[in-house]
Amino acid sequence: MLLEKVKKSIRKFKMLNKGDKVLVGVSGGPDSVCLFYLLYQICKEWDLELHIGHFNHKFRGKESDDDALFVKNLAERFNVPFHLGEMDVRREIERLGLSEEEGARILRYDFFFKTAEENGIKKIALGHTRDDQVETVIMRMIKGAGLLGLRGIPPLREERNILIIRPLFEIWREEILEYLKEKKIDYRIDSSNLSPFYLRNRIRNELIPYLKENFNPQIKEVLANTAENLSLAYEYINKQGKRKFKAVAKIKNGKINILLEKFKKLPSILQREIFRIAIRELKGNLRRINYQHWKEFEELIQERPTGSILDLPRNISIEKDKKYLIFFLKESSHV
């Protein structure tokens, strides 16, 4: 039974505690609608206070507005607080210089975080499935990614002191559609999911079926299991990286000072993780930081003279002095 599988995942990954307030991100599509119905069923057992959040990107005109109305009606039917965010995302991402997919994701998550913060909510539940995991792994392989990226979507992620949980993490989309059909639950269909304009759609609708037919009928299971194994490896590296970060780094006045000689003696894989940890300490996430930036950081350490400064996206800078690597934000005073 789908509900039991989801409850098992919730317990396995320690996603929920009794009495939690949870913001459920609902687009109106099958995955997020199914997630809401399942969480609603365990409300009494877990003493949960559910809220529904919907972000209208206004990509599809009336269709987008109808999605918002559908989700609003869903919230009212179950007497759950409803939070609506709206923005002309195309105009905003042009201003920010972002791709449509990246910009929509950033603005949507920002809405979820702000809504949670304003309402004292510490957990955001999203409807990512095992299929999303497979599509993400393939997409990152195509674009290029290291261990962190190839582990795919984690079941839990903390940002801005809020925990993102994904209770459908171990569920296939096919199981969700069967459940909704069996329970006669309505949901919305996003017509843009059929558009070949988006890379994820081409992966979902063209590449994965081709791989299943011509290479391995179990390709989705193989990739999902690979991501799980890589995630376990990354968790170990991250744990060791945090331990070493405490040994080599000091945080003072908004700056992170890393002892240069001690850092240089560490294995490269731990150096990379400490680099990521330092960026997260400054900005809360690794948005817009990629492999090329790590290579520039390596060059700063190994080849560039004392006093050199490396500028990274989002106003992040790193200075190399005689004793320290100093991570700081350019808008802050740096003496």
The structural class is: alpha/beta
The CATH top-level class label of the largest domain: Alpha Beta
Strand order of the largest sheet: 3-2-1-4-6-5
How confident is the prediction overall: mean pLDDT? Answer: 94
Listing every helix as H and every strand as E from the N terminus to the C terminus, the arrangement reads HEHHEHEHHEHHEEHHHEEHHHEEE
Annotation field: number of helices: 14
| CATH H level, superfamily name of the largest domain | HUPs
End-to-end distance, in Å? 61 Å
The largest pleated sheet is described as: 6 strands, mixed
Supply the CATH architecture of the largest domain.
Answer: 3-Layer(aba) Sandwich
Q: What count of structural domains?
A: 2
User: What is the third-level CATH name, the topology of the largest domain?
Assistant: Rossmann fold
**Number of beta strands:** 11
- Beta content comes to 15-25%
Helix content: 40-55%
Radius of gyration: 22 Å
Explain this structure to me?
With 335 residues, the protein is an alpha/beta fold. The protein folds into two domains: 2-214, Rossmann fold; 240-329, Uridine Diphospho-n-acetylenolpyruvylglucosamine Reductase, domain 3 (2-Layer Sandwich), CATH 3.30.465.60. Helices cover 53% and strands 16% of the residues. The protein is built from 14 helices and eleven strands. It has helices at 2-12, 30-41, 43-46, 62-77, 89-96, 100-118, 130-143, 147-150, 173-183, 199-214, 219-248, 260-264, 268-283, 291-302; strands at residues 21-25, 49-56, 82-86, 123-125, 156-159, 162-165, 249-252, 255-259, 309-312, 316-320, 324-329. A six-stranded mixed β-sheet has the order 3-2-1-4-6-5, with helices on both faces. α11 crosses α13. The termini are far apart.
